[in-house]
Amino acid sequence: MFRLGLTPQYVDRTGPVRVGRERARFEELEPIAVVDIGSNSVRLVVYEGAVRAPTPLFNEKVLCGLGRTIAGSGHLDEEAMRRAIEALIRFHAMIRTLRAKNVQAIATAAVREAGNGELFIARAEAALGCRINTLSGKREAELAAQGIRMAIPDPDGIAGDLGGGSLELIDIGDGELVNAVTLPLGGLRLSDQSGGKLDQAGKLINASLKTVDWLANAGRGRSFYAVGGTWRSLAKLHMIHTDYPLRVMHHYEVPAKEMIAFCREVQKPRRTNAIAGYDSISKARRELLPFGAKTMEMLLTKMRADKVVFSVFGIREGLLYGFLPPNVREADPLLSFCEDYARLRSRSMVHAYELIKWTDPLFETGELSETKNDKRLRAAACLLSDIGWRAHPDYRGEQSLNVVAHAALTGIDHPGRLYLALSVYFRHAGSAQMAGEGLAANLRALAGEARVYRARVIAAAVRAAHMLSAGMAGVIDETQLVLEPGRLVLELPQAHADLYGERVERRFRSLGDLLERQTSVRITE
Asked: In the 8-state DSSP scheme, what is residue 45?
């Protein structure tokens, strides 16, 4: 069985059903601020609260380059420190503005290793108005792995977090975190130590990777979870280069061999500027991109990994994960997000849950029988099915598709995201609408016909249910879909018989056509 997020405290199934007003955020949550002082960037993220699917209220970074000269001088650069302190003063003001009482501030490799690191921390704590915890390399790796777990259910592979000053690696799988190691392979450090020369950087990378004796055996045939701004820039460039239509960074997957080949292209002199999308990467990131690509190439080769999975969650979300009680950690991150979004945007959360149960018979046997993951995706589709109800009827399909395709969903890969986006599109546009142009057409081509068919079926079922119930709870839970040989039957109690009409019949027949079954209605006492 899949586990829904936090259903018991979200939905009162015993009281009267009411249509709640649409809200922009959950005012009952206490914001949490995380300040991350890295070797390259200084960032503030204020999250809405400590929940399984966290949403940032505010996110700002300043690329200060604290670790730019650490390898050569052993100290943090004065100008970089000045910029970082100015950023922290502003962050302090923003934290007050957002009324975040819980502030977690961390510093990583550059501050940890610098001879003047303690002096900087003293100045930084005065600017920020709170204590700053300087993390060990092992703790960095653990938090990065926890961030992966926050976003990806049951990850199995090696997590790698590339910063400006260091690379943290940790084996993540079987519910355990083992073999944590930190290596002096951050982009700024490599650029400084190698004198900007990739060949020399390659020698430094090779020497460091040789010290990790467990990497080749532990990584072979498994996933590599890539965390860090430079690697995210590399993924963005790969999306543009391959004309990938779903420009969502989280859980973007690339076969390891393909990523190795692309990394080599990025490293070629004068070739980088010719790669489509290169100018869309910030200048500060572009300078480090070849070093990040070199590290990625050599790491994947050493690991003999199967694929690369890019994650937008890292040590900041790993910190947040530590605040969650065990029962919340066990909740499904995808369904937790969908529950929250449905609470904010749909007419009735109870009706959304009724849809899950109502559509069960369609997917219990035969061609559409479900895996555990299929069932959780169908549940998510039902939860999101009514989020576009306030939009103009002519544009609900397109708008809902765009919202779901690009939503901050976690706990879902890109194929699953495509299914959800197309399911809400067909729910409004109609399952006969085959998405002939625009984003819907591009996503349909990427999804494949089998996934598109599932999306059309759940959408047709939801359309029939909404026409019967007007999206209100307490109707479809008293009806039942029954699959019989060659026939789809809607059992309708006498008390609701008057709700059945021409429009309901048409939508019910459309669902039957997709399932290649005749349809009929059976009135029950």
From this structure: E
* pLDDT value of position 272: 57
pTM for the complete prediction?
A: 0.90
Separation of alpha carbons 373 and 261, rounded Å: 32
Q: 138-316, which class in CATH?
A: alpha beta
Retrieve residue 238's tokens.
């790969």
> Hey, do 31-134 and 332-524 end up sharing a CATH topology, with the first three levels equal?
no
Is there a contact between 181 and 169 (Cβ–Cβ < 8 Å)? yes
Per DSSP bridges, beta strands 487-493 and 480-484 are antiparallel
Strand positions, DSSP E, 213-319 = 223-227, 252-255, 307-310
> Per-domain residue ranges for the chain?
31-134, 138-316, 332-524
- C-alpha to C-alpha distances, 371 to 374, 457, 462, nearest whole angstrom: 5, 16, 20
Q: Would you place residue 280 in the very low, low, confident or very high pLDDT band (cuts 50, 70, 90)?
A: confident
- What gap in Å lies between CA 50 and CA 59, rounded to an integer? 16
Mean pLDDT of 411-435: 87
* Nearest by Cα to 177 from 213, 134, 203, 147: 147
Class of domain 332-524: mainly alpha
Angle formed by the axes of helices 229-241 and 256-267, to 10°?
Answer: 100
- 182 contacts 139 by C-beta, under 8 angstroms: no
Q: Look at residue 15 in the predicted model and tell me its pLDDT.
A: 34
* CA–CA dist 316, 361 (Å, integer): 42
Query: Could you give the CA distance from residue 421 to residue 13 in angstroms, rounded to a whole number?
Result: 28
